[in-house]
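Retro notes (design track)

What went well: tokenization of the new backbones is finally stable.
What didn't: we kept losing track of which sequence belonged to which structure.
Fix going forward: every design gets posted as structure first, then sequence, in one message. First example under the new rule, 92 residues:
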């Protein structure tokens, strides 16, 4: 059941990140989920490094760091995806 929650959180974070980043991202939905999961992991790690991973109540700082991680990874991942897809089209 934990993996299902990870996928749902990855989807939500990935979609929010795509909405925050200006312009159109051309990554497929499955890659959005993967990037959202990676952003969540990055945000959790950053929260641990900053010492705000476990707080009483809702962990707003951790959630903000997860979203920031997702935005960063979706932004970089979209550029990488576009460059890889562009190279493949040139060869064909």
């Amino acid at each position: 059941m934990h993996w299902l929650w990870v996928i749902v959180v990855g989807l939500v974070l990935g979609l929010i990140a795509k909405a925050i980043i200006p312009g159109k991202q051309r990554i497929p939905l499955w890659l959005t989920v993967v990037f959202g999961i990676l952003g969540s992991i990055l945000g959790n790690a950053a929260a641990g490094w900053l010492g705000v991973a476990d707080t009483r109540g809702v962990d707003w700082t951790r959630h903000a760091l997860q979203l920031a991680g997702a935005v960063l990874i979706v932004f970089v991942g979209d550029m990488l995806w576009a460059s890889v897809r562009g190279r493949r089209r040139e060869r064909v």
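Added context from the reviewer: The CA atoms of residues 57 and 66 lie 17 Å apart.
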